[in-house]
Amino acid sequence: ALKWAFALILIVAAVVGNIYFADRSLLYRVIGVLLIGGVAIAIAAYTRQGKAFLELLKQARIEMKKVVWPTRQETTQTTLVVVLVVAVMSLLLWGLDSLLGFAVSGLIG
Asked: What's the rounded Cα separation, in Å, for the pair 104 and 100?
């Protein structure tokens, strides 16, 4: 709990410091926030939850390597099919909307 409290204090200090030094260069403020945020993340990584999160990231990276990604040709073909289906459906819905609009206009007068 002490590590989490210290990390939270650092993040609050970075935000308050960024507001306090608003008249300074944006570059310096960004560098300061990134450094302090990095230290806060490093401290949080040494907690039980932080270690579990890092393990989760490692496992996710391993699973990402197992994924079979589509080739460029497969991606292009799938994208073209999706665009074609969307175009056809939009024309059908436009036609149906127009037809129903004319029918309702005819009924109403």
From this structure: 6
Instruction: Please check whether residue 4 is in contact with residue 40, taking contact to mean a CB–CB distance below 8 angstroms.
Output: no
The residue type of 89 is M
**109 residues of the chain, pLDDT tens digit each:** 888 899 999 999 999 998 999 998 999 999 999 999 999 999 988 899 989 999 999 999 999 999 999 999 999 999 999 999 999 999 999 999 999 999 999 999 7
Side chain identity at 69, as an amino acid letter?
Answer: W
Q: Which of 47, 56, 35, 39 is nearest to 4 (CA)?
A: 47
Distances in Å between the Cα of 29 and the Cα atoms of 19, 22, 66, 94 are: 9, 8, 40, 52
Which pair of tokens denotes residue 84?
């074609």
